[in-house]
Amino acid sequence: MKFISTRDKNRVVTFKEAVFQGLSPEGGLFVPDSTPDLSKLYAGMTADTPFNESAIQLTAAVMKDEMDRETAARIINRAYYFKPEIVDAGNDIFIEELFHGPSSAFKDFGACFLAASMEEFLQSDNRKAIILTATSGDTGSAVAQAFFDKKNIDVVILYPSGRVSPLQEKQLTTLGKNVRALEVKGSFDDCQRMVKQIFTSPDMKYLPLTSANSINLGRLFPQSFYYMYAYNQLKAKYKNIVFCVPSGNFGNLTAGVLDWCWGMPVKEFIAATNLNNEVPLYLESGKYEPHPSFKTYSNAMDVGDPSNFERLRYIFNDDYKKMGQMIKGAWVSNEDTLKAIKDFYAEKKMFIDPHTAVGYVASCRYREKYQPKDTAIVSLSTAHPGKFLEVVEEATGKHPALPPNLEKLLKLEKHSVVVDNTAEALKEYLKKTF
Hints:
Strand order of the largest sheet: 4-5-13-10-11-12
Structural class: alpha/beta
Oligomer: single chain
Shape: globular
CATH architecture of the domain at 83-104 and 221-404: 3-Layer(aba) Sandwich
CATH topology of the domain at 83-104 and 221-404: Rossmann fold
Number of strands: 14
Radius of gyration: 20 Å
Helix content: 40-55%
Largest sheet: 6 strands, mixed
C-alpha cells in the first residue's frame, strides 16, 4: 500500500514519508491509494486476542511493503502499555474507555504510536524532526506526553488561550525540555490554520517540520486499533455493531471508517457533535457550511471546519448520500450534555466527561429512534472525567477523583509563550527558536 493526497492523486508517498511530511505540499491529506481486503484478518481474531497482538497484526498487514512483523511489534510494544476498557452501560450500549494512557485521553493511542514510529525511523536515518501541532485540548496533551524527552525530536504546540480546560493547559505547559507551548490569542481554528499555512509556506522548508495532528497519517491510522478491539470483544454476542464517535476534527471517526473499508463488518457509525454541527447538517442536506467554532462544554470538539472531513469526503467520493448510508449525524446541546453527566452519575454512580456525554446521548437517541435488534452500540469515551473537573462538578455537584498522572500536575507551574493568531507570528517564533 502507498498513500496519495486528497488533492493530487499523482502525489504518491510511503507511510514513512507521509509521517514526516504530515500535510501534502498542496495542502491535501494523505489517504490509502488502495483498499485491501483484510476481512479474514478481522474474522480470525477473537475476544481473547490481546490488544497489542491485534494491533501488530493490522499494522503488519497494512504496512507490509514497509515493515515486517518484527518492526511492527517493536513499535506497538514501545507505544502501548495500556489498552481500552469496555464498560456495559445497559440497554446494549457499551462505553469504550480510551483514557487509560499517559494523558488520560483517547489521543494517546495515536500520539504514542506516532512517537514510537518516528523514533524508529529517525534512529535508522540519523536525522531530527520538529513536531508542529495545533490542539483544541486533548491532542496537545497527548502529543506532549508521548514525545516528551524523545531523542532527535522537538515539539511546538499551539493552543487557543482560555479555550482549554485548566488541566489540559497544565498538561501542555508544564513539561519543558523539548516540549514548547504557544498560547494563541484566538480559536482552535486559528491555531489549525496557522499550522497549515506554515506547512505550505516555501520559506519554512528549511526546517524539518512535521505534524502530530490527526492530519498526520501516523496518528490517524493507529486509532483504528480500538475499533477492532471492541469489535473483537462483542462480535460473538451481537449480530451487528454500531460505533458512536464524539467528533471534533473527525480523525477519530475516519479511523473507524478505514477499518470498515478494509473489511471489518460494522453496521454503521454515529457522528456525534456538539453545537459545532456542520457535518450532521451536511449529512442531511449535502451542503457543507464551515463556520467559526462555538465554545461549548466539550471543548475538544469545538471545531468549525474539521480537517479530516476532507478525508471522509474523499473516501465517499464527495457523495453525501453515500456517506449518510454509513454515517448517521447527531448533535447535542450544552444543556443535554450537562444533563447526561448528571443522569449517568445518578443512575450508575460513574462519572463521564462532557465529550463522552455527547456520545452517550447520541447513542441513546439512536437506539430510541431505530430500535435495532441484536445490535451493540459502542460509544467511545474519549477522556477521563478528571480532565474536566469544573464541568463535571457543575453537573453532579461532586468532584471526580483524579488519576495520579493528573493529580501531580496541579502543583506544577505553567510556562507558555503568548502569540498573535497569524502565520507571521508563528514564523517569527520558529525562526527565532530553531
